[in-house]
Design a protein that fits this description.
The structure is a single chain. The protein has 226 residues and is mainly α. It has 2 domains: 115 residues, no CATH class; 105 residues, no CATH class. The protein is 67% helix and 5% strand. The chain has a two-stranded antiparallel ribbon with strand order 1-2. β1 and β2 form a beta hairpin. The two termini are 17 Å apart.
């Protein structure tokens, strides 16, 4: 499984966040309280001291990037995950890029040049959902990446069909988030929460339905073979 492209994206993203923090560090007073959380209308409603606000995202990006890089080594169905390598790389890269965008928003707010946070978050999250939806159908059965229900993990048929359906739903939700980000924060929040709930319900219900009709399914009462 070639994780080199992800490693490159992760390193670039973390370095970008560190450079942003270093640039802001000399401009922000030591006792400043920096916005790190925003209400649905885009106004800041959560603040943190300078060290935490400027260093948290780079540290999180480095830790998460390292975790996502080594996690495939512990996958029992390693061959299946390797066949899903391109999808894994794209999604993991998207996650660290979203963190970098979040760091950019925090740093610019710290130096008094705030971005339209709802639009930024909507574009980043919506884009991530679209990317995830486009690759889900290519993901093969594994324990760390994908829609993992008791029925998808014990039926290849349920896994494949559920991922194709959920992939389409993720693309639709991602596009809806992109549109709602322009409309307003409350609408975008409702779209995200409502969409995620619907997808979870559909994924569980549909995967069980396909599993039940699969003559080659395994019993959920025993561990599936690796």
């Amino acid at each position: 499984m070639n994780l080199r492209p992800f490693a490159i994206v992760a390193v670039i993203s973390v370095v970008f966040m560190i450079v942003l923090s270093a640039w802001a560090w000399v401009q922000v007073p030591a006792d400043a309280q920096i916005p790190i959380h925003w209400a649905v209308d885009g106004t800041p409603n959560g603040y943190a001291p300078k060290p935490f606000a400027l260093l948290f995202m780079p540290v999180l990006g480095a830790v998460l990037g390292a975790l996502l890089y080594v996690l495939p080594r512990f996958e029992p169905r390693s061959q299946n995950l390797a066949r899903s390598g391109s999808a894994y790389v794209q999604v993991c890269s998207g996650v660290v890029i979203v963190l970098a965008v979040s760091q950019l928003a925090i740093v610019l707010a710290a130096v008094g040049q705030p971005l339209p946070i709802n639009l930024v978050v909507g574009l980043a999250v919506g884009g991530l959902f679209v990317v995830l939806g486009n690759v889900l159908g290519k993901v093969r059965s594994n324990f760390i990446f994908g829609v993992r229900t008791p029925w998808t993990l014990t039926s290849d048929l349920a896994w494949n069909r559920t991922h194709r359906l959920v992939g389409r739903l993720f693309v639709i939700l991602g596009l809806a988030i992109l549109v709602s980000a322009v409309v307003g924060g409350e609408v975008m929040l409702a779209v995200i929460l409502g969409g995620v709930v619907v997808i979870i319900v559909v994924a569980f219900g549909y995967s069980y339905r396909v599993w039940k009709a699969d003559p080659d399914k395994q019993s959920t009462g025993r561990s599936p073979a690796a």
